[in-house]
Automatic annotation (TrEMBL), chain A:
Protein name (database record): NAD-dependent formate dehydrogenase catalytic subunit
Gene3D superfamilies registered for this protein in UniProt: 2.40.40.20, 3.40.50.740, Dimethylsulfoxide Reductase, domain 2
PANTHER family xrefs: NADH-QUINONE OXIDOREDUCTASE SUBUNIT G, RESPIRATORY NITRATE REDUCTASE
Keywords, alphabetical: Iron, Iron-sulfur, Metal-binding
SUPFAM superfamilies registered for this protein in UniProt: ADC-like, Formate dehydrogenase/DMSO reductase, domains 1-3
GO BP annotations, alphabetical order: respiratory electron transport chain
One term of GO molecular function: NADH dehydrogenase activity
UniProtKB/TrEMBL annotation, chain B:
Residue ranges of domain 4Fe-4S ferredoxin-type in the record: 143-163, 189-217
Span of domain 2Fe-2S ferredoxin-type: 11-89
Lineage of source species: Bacteria, Bacillati, Actinomycetota, Actinomycetes, Kitasatosporales
Keywords assigned: 4Fe-4S, Iron, Iron-sulfur, Metal-binding, Repeat
Protein name: NAD-dependent formate dehydrogenase iron-sulfur protein
Length: 652, 287
């Protein structure tokens, strides 16, 4: 390890919380990271980027931007990528969660945001929580759901696990992992055969109905029951409840998106809303719940490889021309690489330098050992973070950053498209600096002397380029406690729900009709068989978060470390008691963890989190099978086996 | 399935407040009207995010024609009603309520109460030291996040409502015991760590007396370093999931010492989860 005090977690055993890094670090000839001055570190970082660009061209560079930093920082990071380095290789951890939601929604509606506001789930008649344990993962959204339930709405939970969300449901549909499309298609077929299609909406506002109806026709209730494990009667009940509700909200989270065919999953859910007209009205809509505080905003700001700020299509020459004029540059007229493909490109040797801001791919990516090997292969790796994460430990240059949410000014965008002010409440520790200032110093060293007086100046530059954000001045954001996009006018507030146009009587106002997606079922890649007989799925707990770098910092009385959660039936079949440490193996790796017995799991289904990777690295088990459209990995479906380590009866 | 009616625009109703004609939206309470008119009414058990419980009776007002005083926090305005907020009956009643509460309970951390005691001429000490039936209990310190100091509890029920069906729906706490012995408690009066509590801290957000407090505040008060005049309050966005909860960070000496959320915020309505309320420590974990 490093010669200086090693910051971060020490040794094995229960992890100590990470401590903040306060000085820049550069890897020396001895192979270790040494603290140094900002000038030395920035020179080293810039020199490496310049050398990569000069030797291999702009596309040998990749930016991992940060879904937990501000909109302003994401705007500057993508501008750095496109203007200073000259590539579109910029992405963030949106790839590991909701990129399929963005891809699916924008393919159908032309816009990648959830269509509804939180208030609407209080005013609706039916709430479907599909692949979402919002009670744990989005607790304050779930308070709006609880208001809706108390106002008389029915709630259906569709989830392989009987979660704490399902405990509030009228019905729990415990489907087999990865059978969301059969369930959705069977609902669609039932809606069609029962004559419950919203015919006028389908005729006026959609395309591709006939093809879609043919695609779902084989999915009878009985066939769906065999594939999904959900009783036909329950599928029928949900189909009828959804189709006949005056208003209905369809909410989903990573149970839909962390699959190898995730964009198809999203399309299958959107199909249901098109069939019944549950979109584009108050109380009727589609609500993907996003997992990082600014993962919506990072994409909106263009920190994705296929969109310019304001979610504007990078393939549109008119759009590019406006940005090129403003930035005095030439933007490549093609999509860059997403995070998944950047990691592949590192392995192929075509991506040589990475600038990683506030992301922890060494622990967050599926099959993470593989990711660590790839990051080690980089010629030049710069990490900007608030902690010396496992990812930062691999870097050539480590730049200590301010914590965006409380040490920076700016804005962030939430799951209901509400842009809200982020404000500096405390100073960053030691020599840690604001992300934007660091980016500008690097840009200056690479020939682009940008000066922003502050985050507001960045925001106003963005407002001039993004029609959807134009009306959102900082003053108005403060006055209205946030504004929802699209907000083109400084005189009006944005709509609370999207796509009301689809209900217009005037075909011109209706705009492009929404296409059905005739998607096909494709079971999880990692097959359950005699050797790996148990299906492992993953998710969050209430008091912890992602790789635990943030949430490990406070003393939660609820925290119980990593466990392998098993159904009572499987625990009994293996002769396991709660607390016994077992070996969990997949086709890629193996870890050990104590058993926790959860009666909410059905036989054959196991559950783990990713919150404690320093103790139990769950992502050594997961499979890197990724969605071809959005690049999201199938974290939700791993085939595992459980083996005892200790002999029973006190041998340990 | 029946449609749920969405809220319609409300009509205005007119009534007399301390001799003045006042118009308020239909359904407004006397307290809403008083606050809109700038008439000060003391409140303890009233919560701006909660349904009134009418527990403390410190907000009572006189309604012409009514036999008893009415709690302003829950009495809705009727057209033509006449309300007086400062008469002798009202002042006497408030004085007695303050005397009973302040003699039995430790109100040392209750905002505004010292001023009201002066204003209404209350003398809590006239009942003697034996009246202190609650004050002096040992605070319950059983976890690193928050402290329950029931010597400061006035049994206003706000924490129970916030934990229960009005917001959190966790139902970890309820009122236990009867008469002088009643108290807010988890099941079997167990430590919090053996209860259903999920540490959202939404009970702390609504507690009017400081009976429930962040452990950081409790420790700083014990050490004599808690100084609200030296604190800043800055509202920003939570560092965790994508719901976008607004956090109000209370900062003293460049350290976050307490976290709340604006009660009128459309995302949170003043509520947070354990990560938002207590998950700030990572930014100030230093070598």
């Amino acid at each position: 390890m490093n010669d200086h005090r090693r910051k971060g977690r020490r040794g094995s055993g229960p992890a100590e919380p990470y401590t903040r890094i306060t000085r820049p670090m550069v890897r020396g000839r001895d192979g270790l990271l040494h603290e140094t001055s900002w000038d030395v570190a920035l020179d080293a970082a810039a020199r490496g980027f310049a050398a990569t660009r000069d030797r291999y061209g702009p596309d040998a560079f990749g930016m991992f931007s940060c879904a937990r930093s501000t909109n302003e920082m994401n705007y500057v990071a993508q501008k750095f990528t496109r203007v200073v380095m000259g590539t579109n290789n910029v992405d963030s951890c949106n790839r590991t969660c909701h990129a399929p939601s963005v891809a699916g929604l924008s393919a159908v509606f032309g816009s990648g945001g959830g269509t509804s506001s939180y208030q609407e789930v209080e005013d609706t008649d039916l709430i479907v929580m599909w692949g979402s344990n919002a009670r744990f993962a989005h607790p304050i959204f779930f308070q709006h759901v609880l208001k809706g339930i108390r106002n008389g709405a029915r709630m259906f939970a569709v989830d392989p696990r009987r979660t704490s969300t399902a405990q509030w449901a009228d019905r729990w549909l415990g489907l087999n992992v990865g059978t969301d499309i059969p369930l959705a298609h069977a609902m669609a077929r039932e809606i069609i055969h029962a004559g419950l299609v919203n015919r006028s909406f389908v005729a006026r506002a959609t395309t591709g109905y006939e093809e879609f109806a043919a695609e779902v026709e084989p999915w009878t209730l009985d066939t769906a029951e065999q594939v999904t494990g959900v009783p036909a009667q329950a599928v029928r009940e949900l189909a009828h409840a959804y189709a006949t509700a005056e208003r209905a909200q369809l909410c989903w989270t990573l149970g839909i998106t962390e699959h190898h065919n995730a964009t198809d999953n999203v399309r299958a859910l959107i199909n249901l809303s098109l069939l019944t007209g549950h979109v584009g009205r108050h109380g009727s809509g589609l609500q993907p719940l996003r997992g990082q505080n600014n993962v919506q905003g990072g994409g909106d700001m263009g920190a994705i490889p296929d969109r310019l700020p304001g979610f504007q299509d990078i393939l549109d020459p008119g759009v590019r021309a406006r940005f090129e004029a403003s930035w005095d540059t030439v933007i490549q007229p093609r999509h860059g690489l997403n995070l998944t493909r950047m990691l592949d490109a590192i392995e192929r040797g075509t991506l040589k330098a990475v600038y990683c801001i506030g992301e922890n791919p060494a622990q967050s990516e599926a099959d993470c050992e593989h990711t660590v090997e790839r990051l080690r292969a980089l010629d030049h790796f710069v990490v900007q973070d608030i902690f010396l994460t496992r990812t930062a430990e691999l870097a050539d240059v480590v730049l200590p950053a301010a914590a965006a949410w409380c040490e920076s000014d700016g804005t962030a965008t939430n799951s209901e498209r509400r842009v809200q002010r982020v404000r500096r409440a405390v100073p960053p520790p030691g020599e840690a600096r604001d992300d934007i200032a660091i980016l500008c110093d690097l840009a200056a060293r690479l020939g682009h002397p940008w000066t922003y007086a502050g985050a507001e100046e960045v925001w106003n530059e963005l407002r001039a380029l993004s029609p959807d954000h134009h009306g959102m001045t900082y003053d108005r954001l403060a006055e209205h406690q946030g504004l929802q996009w699209p907000c083109p006018s400084t005189e009006e507030v944005g709509p609370t729900y999207l796509h009301g146009r689809l209900w217009s009587d005037d075909p011109r106002l209706r705009g492009r009709p929404a296409p059905f997606g005739p998607v096909k079922h494709d079971p999880p890649v990692d097959l359950v068989d005699g050797t790996y007989p148990i299906r492992l799925t993953t998710g969050r707990r209430l008091d912890s978060y992602n790789t635990g770098v943030q949430s490990g910092g406070f003393a939660s009385p609820l925290r119980r470390g990593e466990n392998i959660e098993l159904s009572p039936e499987d625990a009994a079949a293996h002769g396991l008691a709660a607390g016994e440490v077992v070996r969990i193996s997949s086709r890629r790796g193996s870890v050990t963890a104590p058993v926790w017995i959860d009666p909410g799991l059905r036989p054959g289904l196991a559950f783990m989190t990713m919150h404690f990777p320093d103790e139990v690295d769950t992502n050594q088990l997961t499979i890197e099978a990724t969605d071809p459209i959005a690049g999201t990995a199938e974290y939700k479906a791993t085939a595992i086996r459980i083996d005892r380590i200790a002999a029973p009866a006190g041998a340990r | 399935m029946t449609a749920i009616p969405l809220q319609l625009p409300r009509r205005l109703v007119e009534f007399t407040l301390d001799g003045r004609q006042v118009r308020v939206p239909e359904g407004a309470t006397v307290l809403d009207a008083c606050r809109a008119e700038g008439t000060e009414i003391p409140t303890l058990c009233h919560g701006d995010t909660l349904t009134p419980k009418n527990a403390c009776r410190v907000c009572v007002v006189e309604v012409e024609g009514a036999r008893t005083l009415a709690p302003a926090c829950s009495r809705r305005v009727d057209p033509g009603m006449e309300v007086r907020t400062g008469g002798a009956r009202v002042r006497h009643s408030r004085k007695l309520v303050l005397e009973l509460l302040a003699s039995s309970t430790d109100l040392s951390t209750t905002p505004h109460v010292a001023g009201w005691i002066r204003e209404y001429g209350a003398r809590p000490d006239r009942f003697g030291p034996d009246a202190a039936t609650r004050a002096g209990q040992e605070p319950k310190v059983d976890n690193e996040l928050y402290v329950r100091d029931y010597g400061k509890c006035i049994m206003c029920y706000k924490c129970v409502d916030a934990c229960g069906d009005q917001w959190q729906n966790t139902f970890a706490i309820a009122v236990a015991g009867r008469g002088f012995d009643n108290t807010v408690s988890v099941e079997h009066d167990a430590p919090l760590t053996d209860s259903a509590c999920v540490y959202c801290g939404n009970c702390i957000e609504v507690c009017p007396t400081g009976a429930l407090s962040f452990k950081s505040e409790f420790d700083m008060r014990a050490a004599g370093t808690w100084d609200e005049s030296a604190q800043t309050r800055t509202t920003t966005i939570c560092a965790y999931c994508g719901v976008g909860c607004n956090l109000t960070l209370h900062v003293q000496g460049d350290e976050i010492v307490k976290v709340g959320s604006p009660h009128d915020n459309p995302v949170t309505h003043g509520n947070l989860c354990v990560k938002g309320r207590f998950g700030f420590q990572h930014v100030q974990n230093r070598e």
